[in-house]
Amino acid sequence: MPGYKVLSFDKISSTQNYAHDMIANGTAHDHTAIVANAQYAGRGRYRRTWVSHHGNLYVSFIFQCEERDSRLAYAVAVAIVDTLSEYGIKSEIKWPNDVLIDGKKVSGVLIEYAGRFVIVGIGINVATNPTVAEYKTDKLSNYVNVSISDLFNRLSKNLEKWKNADFNSVRLRWMDAATGLNATVKYRGESVTLIGINDSGALVVRRQNEYMLIHGDEILM
Predict the structure, then answer these.
(1) Which residues contact 147 (CB under 8 A, 6 or more apart)?
(2) Taking 60 as the threshold, does the pLDDT of residue 46 lie above it?
(3) Residues near 113 by Cβ (< 8 Å), separated by ≥ 6?
(4) Which of 51, 83, 145, 201 is the most buried (most CB within 10 A)?
(5) How far is Cα 36 from Cα 1, in angstroms, rounded to an integer?
(6) Residues 29/7, Cβ–Cβ less than 8 Å
(7) What is residue 11's three-state secondary structure?
(8) Alpha-carbon distance 110 to 17, whole Å?
(9) CATH code, residues 5-177
């Protein structure tokens, strides 16, 4: 496994923002990881705030990437699930890459492309979990004692494994861990049935007898 150049901080605005700055000023390199103990301007998907108190893992990985690939999100989610399973924790994936324990969010992912790089931001609640109006949250310390350094090392290895794996293997593992398959979900205000993901990484849903492919939109479960 290629080694990572790790940059560690006690508190910064956002590991994701720091990664963007490195790319913009030409100091970014493949397999760089920016880790912070806390963030004061953490970001999630759709410009949502990611509450980032001390005691959790906040990391942004920089990888060289010549073109966008929507399938990467699934590999990241699978890597997180496998990492938690190494601690005996069973978790599940809410499309595309939120990780839940007993229906409560414990980890989120933000993937952004910049220049010839992709930034994979991951937050995992370890010692604290925020109170969020939209959904329930959880933390690993409710189940097991985990050190941040050990969690980071295991996550790095699993991320390397799954982002380089054949996508069919990723797809099958994602489907195995996914929550809500064959359940009714809301897509653009309509009730549809969640079927899974296809070989290109599109979400497959069924509206009555019509199958549709979804790329990037949110579904409500």
Answers:
(1) none
(2) no
(3) 65, 68, 119
(4) 83
(5) 23
(6) no
(7) strand
(8) 11
(9) 3.30.930.10
Confidence of residue 42 (pLDDT cuts 50, 70, 90): low
pLDDT digits (tens, 9 = 90+) for 89-138: 999 999 888 999 999 999 999 999 999 999 999 999 999 988 887 889 99
Q: Which of 122, 127, 158 is nearest to 144 (CA)?
A: 127
Q: What is the 3-state secondary structure (H, E, C) of 81-105?
A: HHHHHCCCCCCEEECCCEEEECCEE
Q: Give just the sign of the alpha carbon dihedral 57, 75, 121, 30.
A: positive
Tokens (6 digits) for 77: 């989610």
pLDDT tens sequence across 17-28: 999 999 999 999
Interatomic CA distance for residues 183 and 156, integer angstroms:
32
DSSP element (H, E) containing 10? strand 5-12
Residue range(s) of every CATH 3.30.930.10 domain in the chain: 5-177
